[in-house]
Design a protein that fits this description.
This protein is α+β, with helices and mostly antiparallel strands. It contains 14 helices and 16 strands. Helix 2 packs across helix 14 and helix 5 packs across helix 12. The longest helix is centred in the C-terminal third of the chain and has 31 residues. The chain is elongated.
Length: 409
């Protein structure tokens, strides 16, 4: 007889208390365990994504990818990296060793690439970690008799805040929504006739919505930075932007480029005094309007146009609890939207989780029953069989308690 068995027989009361403690802690821990479709897995990969629209792949390689590679080399712990230069975009995957603190590395890589000297037309690089938990746990599809833009507005103001308030939800995003954008369509004949440089048009528009530093102010031991902002917030203000003609002097061109809607009249007089060419506003050489942006994605449910809602969870969120809470909110949300609105659940990860857990319990119970029967057949002892039948579930409950204490799912 082993020493553990002897000790257990000599201290039966203590063993009994341990069994009771395991049962009590199990009753608390097992229902509180996180239930997930995929385990929490942090892969040691980061993706650096940069967009430079209208640039060829060779230029992307020279002006974007190569400078980013040089800065990534300065990051400590990089195992290897792969880069892909396509037309209009650069993608770099950075690999580290398993066990690396990826949150710290993400911050380090972000700081490194922010200092890279890229093409002036390239957008700032975005750094993202590869994370399976970012996949939506619930996806909804909303169809309604309401106009699409009105439905999208109601979803953004009434539905998204409610779902965002569900415990464990990290983000709620809409898809298939018609976005509005500013469209400026030049009139080529007038541009040529008035002698306007097309590059000057782009510069004027950019500087009409610009925030830049304008020095500092010192007060005692404190130094306050000063920034100057220009904002053309309406279509009419953008139409009144003054574009310097190609024949204008550099001084007048700069004055015209930095003008906004409120300074259009003063800029026009400055241009008139420094050059013979009359001032030209953007509205004279282009059609300016707010119009729907070209669709990049279309959402349909059962062949009808709809708007998708994707709900992703935080690292501490429970998939099953989130899905149940969302399902509880849907009837009230449907009533508040009005019209012939229907909200259908397209994807629900909790269904697969529940099915997996149910199957696990069923298979485990069958296995335990057959194990007990085989022990009884071979030993022909009810006492030994009873001990085995108790030890199997206690072992499982003990393992689940350890998972709960470690924060595992």
């Amino acid at each position: 007889m082993s020493w553990l068995t002897k000790m257990s027989l000599r201290n039966r009361s203590i063993v009994g208390l341990v069994v009771v403690a395991v049962i009590i802690f199990g009753a608390i821990a097992v229902p509180a365990l996180k239930q997930e479709l995929m385990p929490d897995l942090t892969l040691p990969y980061l993706t650096v994504f940069t967009v430079d629209q209208g640039t060829s792949a060779s230029d992307i390689e020279r002006t974007v990818t190569a400078p980013l590679e040089q800065t990534i080399k300065t990051v400590s712990g990089v195992k290897e990296y792969d880069s892909f230069s396509n037309e209009g975009m650069s993608i770099i995957t950075v690999q580290f060793e398993f066990g690396t603190d990826m949150k710290a590395k993400e911050t380090e890589v972000q700081q490194a690439v922010a200092g890279a000297q890229l093409s002036q037309t390239a957008l700032p690089p975005s750094v993202a970690a590869l994370n399976f938990n970012s996949m939506p746990v619930v996806q909804l599809a909303v169809s309604s008799s309401l106009p699409p833009q009105e439905l999208a507005t109601q979803l953004g103001t009434q539905v998204v805040p409610v779902l965002q308030g569900v415990p464990g939800v990290q983000a709620v995003t809409l898809s298939g929504v018609e976005q509005m954008q500013l469209q400026i369509q030049l009139k080529p004949a007038k541009v040529v006739r008035l002698g306007v440089d097309t590059t000057q048009i782009a510069t004027t528009i950019q500087q009409a919505n610009l925030t830049t530093g304008a020095g500092t102010v010192t007060s005692g031991s404190l130094v306050y930075p000063i920034t100057v902002s220009a904002r053309a917030q309406t279509v009419e203000a953008i139409k009144k932007l003054v574009i310097a003609p190609a024949s204008a002097s550099p001084l007048s061109a700069a004055a015209a480029a930095t003008s906004g809607a409120t300074a259009a009249a003063s800029t026009a007089s400055a241009v008139a005094t420094t050059t013979a060419a009359p001032p030209v506003t953007l509205g004279e050489i282009a059609d300016v309007r707010i119009a729907p942006a070209p669709l990049t994605a279309i959402t349909r449910t059962n062949g009808k146009s709809s708007i998708g809602i994707s709900i992703s969870k935080s690292s501490t969120g429970n998939t099953v609890d989130i899905a149940n809470a969302v399902a509880d909110e849907l009837p009230a949300l449907t009533r508040n939207l009005g019209g012939k609105t229907k909200i259908a659940t397209v994807v629900d990860q909790s269904i697969y989780v529940k099915e997996s857990i149910t199957s696990l319990w069923q298979e485990g119970l069958i296995g335990a029953v057959f194990a007990v029967l085989i022990i009884w057949v071979f030993l022909r002892s009810w006492r030994s069989t009873l001990i085995a039948s108790l030890s199997i579930p206690l072992s499982i409950v003990g393992a689940l308690i350890i998972l709960f204490s470690r924060g595992e799912s």
